[in-house]
């Protein structure tokens, strides 16, 4: 959809008089309406963290710790680097491909003027809670505000009826929670002090629930979400521990989060009219690849292709984060992890395919194909693997 913030810049730069400017904007709106009518489709709106960020953090005031718009990021697909935390494409990119959509544009990139096919609001480092990496990322609450701004533009450009149809047909993709449990790491007593694990998870799930309800209030009906990955065993976490082992505490709280998420989604399905969701068990999928990489086409499952220190777990990939020296493997597709915290492009394609096509043993109660196509989810065949 054509964004008024982009139109305003264009009109100003052209130096057009007011009457001509109004006509210019009206013409653009008519083009948008014609485009929408000609290309009926299911839009995709993306929210979350670095697993989904297509480069929004390139356009905010932050540090290289929360950016990936430099070599060797993107080396397998994007030249120059797009800002994705990977050697190539991410889960939403492959989901868009499967849905026969173009790459969903980063909302904050001022060059993106069309959001007819959807928008990606995700921000690397973002959490569900505003406090997670506050000041360096676009938190989920702000991402949802951007979505509300875009909804207003849809209504202005398309009219209420067409806008409501677009929003109700659309799929809303989420990857949230991991940073809420990683960002407090370092407290000597507990990563979540002064909260109990249950209290802290309750806050995260509560805010995530509010986000789902907010989208539902604006007409959204179809949610796709991944479980929080096993971040307690990330190379970055293990490299920072004296014995280089997984963090048992993070593992426990992530497990609690994923259990609470499942329960809350089931409640919302009963409470909210028309609410449907696809929940993909990304946590288990990643654990399997870390434990048995050859089964999924990888040579190395627990060490990053790009980084330094034990397991490549020191977050130095690209040499822009305080330490210039880093190691880079010869073939990124051999390593499940591209850097200390993120899977490579091959893994993201695998995850997207299972999220799209998986049966009830993989993604439930629907898969993404069912949400996009309106078809029933196949029951477990025992043949599919996460």
Largest β-sheet summary: 6 strands, mixed
Helix and strand composition category: alpha/beta
Mean pLDDT rating: 89
Number of helical regions = 12
Distance between the termini: 35 Å
Taking pLDDT < 50 over at least 5 consecutive residues as the criterion, the unreliable ranges are 1-32, 34-38, 379-383
What Rg do the Cα atoms give?
Answer: 21 Å
Q: Tell me the fraction of residues in β-strands, as a range.
A: 5-15%
Order of helices and strands: HHEHEHHEHHEHHEHEEEEHEH
The number of strands is: 10
The rough form would be described as globular
Helix content estimate: 25-40%
Strand order of the largest sheet: 2-1-3-4-5-10
Structure explained in plain terms:
With 386 residues, the chain is of the alpha/beta class. It has helices spanning 4-14, 18-38, 91-98, 140-158, 160-169, 178-182, 197-217, 235-239, 248-271, 282-291, 345-357, 368-373, and strands spanning 44-48, 118-120, 171-175, 222-226, 276-280, 300-304, 306-307, 327-328, 335-337, 363-365. Strands 2-1-3-4-5-10 form a six-stranded mixed beta sheet. Helix 3 (91-98) links the parallel strand 1 and strand 2. Helix 3 (91-98) crosses helix 11 and helix 4 (140-158) packs across helix 5.
List keywords for this structure.
GDSL; alpha/beta; disordered N terminus; globular; 12 helices
List the topology elements:
Elements: H1 4-14, H2 18-38, E1 44-48, H3 91-98, E2 118-120, H4 140-158, H5 160-169, E3 171-175, H6 178-182, H7 197-217, E4 222-226, H8 235-239, H9 248-271, E5 276-280, H10 282-291, E6 300-304, E7 306-307, E8 327-328, E9 335-337, H11 345-357, E10 363-365, H12 368-373
Parallel strand pairs: 1-2, 1-3, 3-4, 4-5, 6-9
Antiparallel strand pairs: 5-10, 7-8
Helix pairs in contact: 3-11, 4-5, 7-9
């Amino acid at each position: 959809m054509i964004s008024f913030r982009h139109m305003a810049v264009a009109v100003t730069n052209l130096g057009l008089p007011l009457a001509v400017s109004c006509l210019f904007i009206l013409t653009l709106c008519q083009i948008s309406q014609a485009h929408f009518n000609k290309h009926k489709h299911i839009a995709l709106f993306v929210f979350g963290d670095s697993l989904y960020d297509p480069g929004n953090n390139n356009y905010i005031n932050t540090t290289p710790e929360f950016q990936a718009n430099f070599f060797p990021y993107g080396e397998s697909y994007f030249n120059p680097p797009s800002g994705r935390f990977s050697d190539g494409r991410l889960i939403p990119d492959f989901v868009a491909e499967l849905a026969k959509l173009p790459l969903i544009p980063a909302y904050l990139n001022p060059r993106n003027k069309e959001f007819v096919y959807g928008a990606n609001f995700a921000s690397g480092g973002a959490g569900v809670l505003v406090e997670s990496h506050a000041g360096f990322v676009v938190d989920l609450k702000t991402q949802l505000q951007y979505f509300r701004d875009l909804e207003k533009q849809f209504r202005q450009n398309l009219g209420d009826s067409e806008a409501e149809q677009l929003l109700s047909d659309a799929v809303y993709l989420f990857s949230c929670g991991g940073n809420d449990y990683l960002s407090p790491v370092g407290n000597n007593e507990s990563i979540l002090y002064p909260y109990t694990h249950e209290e802290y998870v309750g806050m995260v799930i509560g805010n995530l629930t509010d986000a789902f309800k907010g989208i539902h209030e604006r007409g959204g009906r179809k949610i796709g979400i991944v479980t929080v990955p096993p971040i307690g065993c990330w190379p970055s976490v293990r490299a920072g521990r004296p014995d280089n082992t997984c963090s048992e505490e993070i593992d426990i709280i992530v497990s609690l989060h994923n259990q609470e998420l499942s329960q809350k989604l089931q409640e919302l399905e009963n409470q909210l009219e028309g609410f449907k969701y696809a929940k993909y068990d990304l946590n288990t999928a990643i654990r399997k690849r870390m434990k048995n990489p050859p089964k999924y086409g990888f040579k190395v499952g627990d060490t990053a292709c790009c980084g330094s220190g034990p397991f490549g777990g020191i977050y130095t990939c690209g040499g822009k984060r305080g330490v210039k020296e880093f190691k880079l493997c010869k073939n990124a597709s051999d390593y499940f992890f591209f850097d200390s915290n993120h899977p490579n492009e091959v893994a993201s394609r695998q995850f997207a395919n299972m999220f799209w096509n998986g049966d009830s043993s993989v993604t439930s109660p629907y898969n993404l194909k069912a949400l996009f196509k309106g078809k029933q989810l196949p029951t477990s065949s025992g043949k599919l693997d996460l």
